[in-house]
Amino acid sequence: SQTIHQWPATLVQPVGSPLSLECTVEGTSNPNLYWYRQAAGRGLQLLFYSVGIGQISSEVPQNLSASRPQDRQFILSSKKLLLSDSGFYLCAWSRGRPGPQETQYFGPGTRLLVL
Amino acid sequence: GEDVEQSLFLSVREGDSSVINCTYTDSSSTYLYWYKQEPGAGLQLLTYIFSNMDMKQDQRLTVLLNKKDKHLSLRIADTQTGDSAIYFCAEKETGGFKTIFGAGTRLFVKA
Prior knowledge:
The complex is a heterodimer. Chain A is mainly β. Chain A has no helices and eleven strands. By secondary structure, chain B is mainly β. At the A-B interface, strand 5 and strand 10 of A face strand 5 and strand 9 of B.
């Protein structure tokens, strides 16, 4: 069966510090990978998605970046965090071409607080 | 642009039915989803419906779709305290990678 991991679960960082959040998927190959941010009281905002190694699409221009160094690893990074980067970051994966079977499966999330 | 709207809160008594409503704007949306998020956890897919369907039932869950009004609802029969969570409505267009989520409806179930 497939599982998705995120770490850390919780992170408190000062403004201006760097960020690295990691997401890994087990039990499948060549998944589509997604990073979302959920701000308090708001829906999910798609940040990045990737359909393969080294292929990253950005949905929202900001001070965050994403990388996919391995097939089942997706990393969200920042060189300098802003207060507005605080939120709940969710990684998700899906299989195959977009379509009715392309259900997204979400990880447990990382809660980031920037002070 | 694309937008999905939901009411933020709903409170029901245990054993009653819950109805969570959602409206969307993208007429090209083909797939509409309901996700459940329990406290501190990721999202869990509950059910989805194709735009060529009007209704889908799965045990205690009933999804109704009104394409003309772009209105989607989720009915939970015999609501239990374990159903307390945030419910997200989402839409996706055919062939697209982008899923648009609503802000979520927080369901409170009173014993």
